[in-house]
């Protein structure tokens, strides 16, 4: 097992939050890069187990999820598990730019990386950003969350913008490694007014509820 730390960047009221966020991202990605392909593969199976067993996911007709990049919490086993169960899965599509679209998963093999560093995407026709309203559960990537539900993402503001389409009452769950949950009282993440809060985090071992499911994201 690699030794993975929980990096922290102390910040104060005078600091530029986008700069602080970028420092967090770099530090957390450096920790993620310590995991071996074998550890990542095992983790991906564990995430699939925890998410796939959630009662809300079992009951869902449509789940919005994501196709992971190399060091992110892996989702291939989860996508497989959901598809085999007959759950409809929506995945983000950025297209040639940074569009906020969705497309249904047809098979994990069909996912295509369009450019280095970008997430794999479905190849078929896309639905608009508001297709997210069809989801009964939303599973999002994150570099970290804090116990108040604040989420640090990749830095494009993609999810902060698209989550406005989630129906009220629909659970929004971030996949993170255990070290990536920060205590909001002692070590809060930097937060800007546009940041949305997830309801829960899933690690390789468990669901951690952070907010009431009925609260808006
Ligand atoms: N797996 C996954 N899918 C996701 C996200 C994410 O964080 N993870 N997003 C969360 O927001 C959205 C958009 N994600 C993006 C991810 C990368 C780039 C990007 O520009 N990548 C660089 C290469 C960066 C690198 O090498 O690390 C590039 O294309 O030049 C843009 C958007 C939607 N889908
Ligand atoms: N709802 C919004 N409307 C307009 N701009 C936004 C909105 N949300 C985020 N942004 C802009 O997007 C940029 C990135 O935001 P932020 O650093 O919070 O991304 P993130 O949540 O880490 O990334 P992502 O959501 O892509 O995973 C910021 O410049 C921010 O101003």
From TrEMBL:
<dbReference type="GO" id="GO:0030272">
    <property type="term" value="F:5-formyltetrahydrofolate cyclo-ligase activity"/>
</dbReference>
<protein>
    <recommendedName>
        <fullName>5-formyltetrahydrofolate cyclo-ligase</fullName>
        <ecNumber>6.3.3.2</ecNumber>
    </recommendedName>
</protein>
<dbReference type="InterPro" id="IPR002698">
    <property type="entry name" value="FTHF_cligase"/>
</dbReference>
<keyword id="KW-0547">Nucleotide-binding</keyword>
<dbReference type="Pfam" id="PF01812">
    <property type="entry name" value="5-FTHF_cyc-lig"/>
</dbReference>
<dbReference type="InterPro" id="IPR037171">
    <property type="entry name" value="NagB/RpiA_transferase-like"/>
</dbReference>
<keyword id="KW-0479">Metal-binding</keyword>
<comment type="similarity">
    <text>Belongs to the 5-formyltetrahydrofolate cyclo-ligase family.</text>
</comment>
<keyword id="KW-0436">Ligase</keyword>
<keyword id="KW-0460">Magnesium</keyword>
<dbReference type="InterPro" id="IPR024185">
    <property type="entry name" value="FTHF_cligase-like_sf"/>
</dbReference>
<keyword id="KW-0067">ATP-binding</keyword>
């Amino acid at each position: 097992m690699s030794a993975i730390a929980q990096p922290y960047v102390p910040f104060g009221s005078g600091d530029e939050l986008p700069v602080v966020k970028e420092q967090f991202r770099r530090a957390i990605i450096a920790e993620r890069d310590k995991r071996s392909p074998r550890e990542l593969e095992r983790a991906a199976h564990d995430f699939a187990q925890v998410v796939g067993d959630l009662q809300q996911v079992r009951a869902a007709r449509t789940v919005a999820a994501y196709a992971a990049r190399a060091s992110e919490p892996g989702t291939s086993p989860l996508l497989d598990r959901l598809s085999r169960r007959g759950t409809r899965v929506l995945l983000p599509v950025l297209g040639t730019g940074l569009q906020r679209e969705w497309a249904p998963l047809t098979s994990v093999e069909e996912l295509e990386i369009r450019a280095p560093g970008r997430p794999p995407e479905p190849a078929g026709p896309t639905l608009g950003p508001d297709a997210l309203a069809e989801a009964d559960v939303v599973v999002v990537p994150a570099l970290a969350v804090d116990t108040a539900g604040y989420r640090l993402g990749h830095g494009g503001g993609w999810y902060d913008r698209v989550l406005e389409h989630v129906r009220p009452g629909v659970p929004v769950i971030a996949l993170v490694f255990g070290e990536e949950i920060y205590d909001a009282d002692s070590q809060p993440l930097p937060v800007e007014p546009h940041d949305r809060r997830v309801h829960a985090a899933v690690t390789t071992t468990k669901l951690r509820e952070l907010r009431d499911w009925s609260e808006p994201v």
